[in-house]
């Protein structure tokens, strides 16, 4: 099968976890020859069984054109250095979520002649669960893929990594290692820690409190189920930028605590901090890019009661499709003990009345409509 992609194979994917296996599956779907390598025989065998590629040990004299190191940040640099030495004709990229430490280690250990073939990168995609079993070939569609060349990276090497990102449906952009690490501290690493800290507080919560949990708690603690081993390596590799943001967050939190205590002691003027915090949160949240990376749009909302039974949600989606109304976004709330969930569907405001009419005509119970998000 000939490749349909700009990426020319063979490609060696070194690391068969979630990201590596997803990359391999996407390349295989485009007709690229993929070799697989991993220190874990079990993970390697699972990825191979999923059709992600062939274990490199089974290939006689492998000569990859591109090596993608998909190893955790604490071991990625060592894998990159080894790949540069073992495969002298290959462009090598790592997709670790921390860049400066990896690049510094590679530059300190690799030959100058090898560094022209090395380009760091990082696809901004993932899931709460890790491992090859959770890999999907469309994981990177529409997601940013940061390319982090070194001063010695050859233009053709940068192009090879850019082609990889585009072939996998991602949106490539270039950053320096320091800028990348500060950026991911804001949008990924600190949110992970805050979610985990919040979820950790639930260990002290009484059972009757948890029985009241709604979608807000589920939303804010969703990523707290992430792999502790992987995230320990990620956080440790980006400790400086993370600590600086947490310092500022700690100041905000301390001020809030002090004002709440003053209010509790009878000072009504201290309660203004709550509005300040909420307003700053509104303004910050509005800066998060919307669909397709553009400015956030305000969608009309429809809250629909969805029975907790097989096929109900699929039927709801199908009815939107039959009505030729696009679902722009959605959330699903399903509290414990209920026999139904509440789907909040976001649609273009111009389609709101039609959507409500179509759904009611098909027997759906509309709880509310018309709000915007």
Note the quaternary state here.
single chain
The outline comes out as: globular
What is the percent of helical residues?
40-55%
Distance between the termini: 46 Å
Largest sheet: 5 strands, parallel
Succession of helices and strands? EHEHEEHEHHEEHEHHHHHHEHEEHE
Structural class: alpha/beta
Percent in strands = 15-25%
Strand order of the largest sheet: 3-2-1-4-5
Low-confidence stretches: none
Radius of gyration, rounded? 24 Å
- Total number of helical segments? 14
Mean pLDDT: 90
Pathway: Amino-acid biosynthesis; L-tyrosine biosynthesis; (4-hydroxyphenyl)pyruvate from prephenate (NAD(+) route): step 1/1
Organism: Scrofimicrobium appendicitidis
Family: Belongs to the prephenate/arogenate dehydrogenase family.
EC number: 1.3.1.12
Protein architecture, described:
This protein has 14 helices and twelve strands. The chain is an alpha/beta fold. The strands form three sheets. The protein has a five-stranded parallel β-sheet, with helices on both faces. It is globular and about 70 Å long. The model has no long low-confidence stretch (mean pLDDT 90). It catalyses: prephenate + NAD(+) = 3-(4-hydroxyphenyl)pyruvate + CO2 + NADH. Belongs to the prephenate/arogenate dehydrogenase family. This is Prephenate dehydrogenase.
């Amino acid at each position: 099968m000939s490749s349909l992609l700009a990426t020319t194979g063979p490609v060696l994917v070194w690391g068969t976890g979630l990201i590596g296996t997803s990359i391999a599956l996407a390349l295989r779907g485009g007709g690229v020859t993929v070799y697989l390598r991993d220190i874990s025989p079990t993970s390697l065998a699972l990825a191979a069984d999923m059709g992600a590629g062939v274990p490199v040990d089974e290939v006689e004299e492998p000569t990859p054109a591109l090596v993608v190191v998909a190893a955790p940040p604490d071991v990625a640099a060592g894998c990159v250095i080894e790949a540069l030495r073992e495969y002298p004709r290959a462009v090598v990229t790592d997709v670790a979520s921390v860049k400066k430490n990896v690049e510094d280690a590679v530059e300190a250990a690799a030959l100058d002649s090898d560094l022209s073939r090395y380009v760091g990168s990082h696809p901004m995609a993932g899931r709460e669960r890790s491992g090859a079993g959770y890999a999907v070939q469309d994981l990177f569609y529409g997601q940013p893929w940061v390319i982090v060349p070194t001063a010695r990276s050859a233009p053709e090497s940068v192009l090879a990594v850019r082609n990889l990102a585009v072939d996998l449906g991602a949106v490539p952009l270039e950053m320096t290692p320091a800028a990348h690490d500060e950026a991911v501290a804001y949008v990924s690493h600190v949110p992970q820690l805050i979610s985990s800290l919040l979820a950790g507080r639930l260990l002290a919560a009484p059972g009757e409190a948890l029985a009241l949990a709604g979608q807000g708690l589920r939303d804010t603690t969703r990523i707290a189920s992430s792999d502790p081993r992987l995230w320990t390596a990620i956080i440790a590799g980006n400790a400086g930028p993370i600590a600086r943001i947490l310092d500022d967050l700690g100041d905000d939190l301390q001020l809030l605590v002090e004002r709440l205590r003053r209010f509790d002691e009878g000072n009504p003027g201290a309660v203004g901090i709550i509005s300040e915090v909420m307003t700053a949160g509104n303004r910050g949240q509005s800066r998060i890019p919307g669909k397709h990376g553009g400015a956030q749009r305000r969608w009309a909302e429809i809250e629909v009661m969805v029975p907790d039974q097989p096929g109900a949600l699929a039927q709801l989606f199908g009815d939107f499709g039959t009505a030729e109304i696009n679902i722009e976004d959605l959330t699903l709330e399903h509290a414990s003990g209920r026999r139904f969930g509440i789907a909040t569907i976001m649609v273009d405001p111009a389609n709101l009345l039609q959507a409500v009419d179509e759904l009611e005509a098909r027997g759906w119970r509309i709880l509310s409509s018309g709000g915007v998000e």
